[in-house]
Write a structure and sequence with these properties.
- The protein contains five helices and five strands.
- Strands 2-1-3 form a three-stranded mixed sheet, with no helix packed on it.
- The protein starts with a strand and ends in a 6-residue tail after the last strand.
Length: 196
């Protein structure tokens, strides 16, 4: 597959053969598995002390006393040790040994990476992710080496406007709504610091 090489004014100055990775079949199911595997790597295991709520001498007094059969301390009638009792233990607490990491095979992960790269060349998939690329003629966009000589931010903006990407840059530069109760305290929007 060949794509045009553009200069800084969006004029075609040649063609280039794109790498074979762009011919990989697009597999959203494998990409999703790889993303979940990566996300679960960041999870921190949590658990409880196996003896939590059980360090007590409380035992049940049995029936015939007009009391419920929950374990009680020997000094009085205060309940302890049982499930959902003050000072007691949980019925099914989180276990530190629980497997929370979703693994993925090495070949599947590599296929997911190649498939994700190939998906960036399909305009319908990129737009369905929320990107504003109506003015873009073709993906992937290949620009000549003169882009490395740009020194001023204004020139970069002019280049992005010429290529039709500036609308997507402005879409990405929006203020997000704060999570949590800060919304009630006149801190609703997250102002992202950027120089003008």
């Amino acid at each position: 597959m060949k794509v045009p090489v553009l200069n800084l004014t969006k004029e075609q100055v040649g063609e280039v053969e794109v790498p074979k990775v762009f011919e990989t079949p697009i597999r959203p199911d494998v990409i999703k598995r790889a993303v979940i595997a990566q996300q679960t790597r960041r999870l921190q295991p949590q658990g409880r002390d196996p003896m939590a709520g059980k360090r007590t001498t409380a035992i049940s007094k049995g029936t015939g006393l007009g009391l419920s059969r929950v374990p009680r301390l020997k000094q009085g009638n205060r309940a302890a040790f049982g499930v959902s009792i003050v000072g007691g233990h949980q019925a099914f607490p989180p276990m530190a040994e629980k497997k929370i990491v979703k693994n993925i095979n090495r070949k599947e992960r590599r296929l997911a990476i190649r498939s994700g790269i190939a998906a960036t060349a399909v305009k319908e998939i990129v737009s369905s992710r929320g990107h504003n690329i109506e003015a873009v003629s073709q993906l992937p966009i290949v620009i000549e080496d003169a882009i490395e000589d740009i020194q001023r931010t204004k020139d970069v903006k002019d280049l992005l406007v010429n290529l039709g990407i500036w609308a997507d840059v402005e879409r990405a530069d929006r203020n997000k709504i704060r999570a949590g109760k800060g919304k009630m305290r006149e801190k609703r929007r997250l102002e992202e610091a950027h120089s003008s």
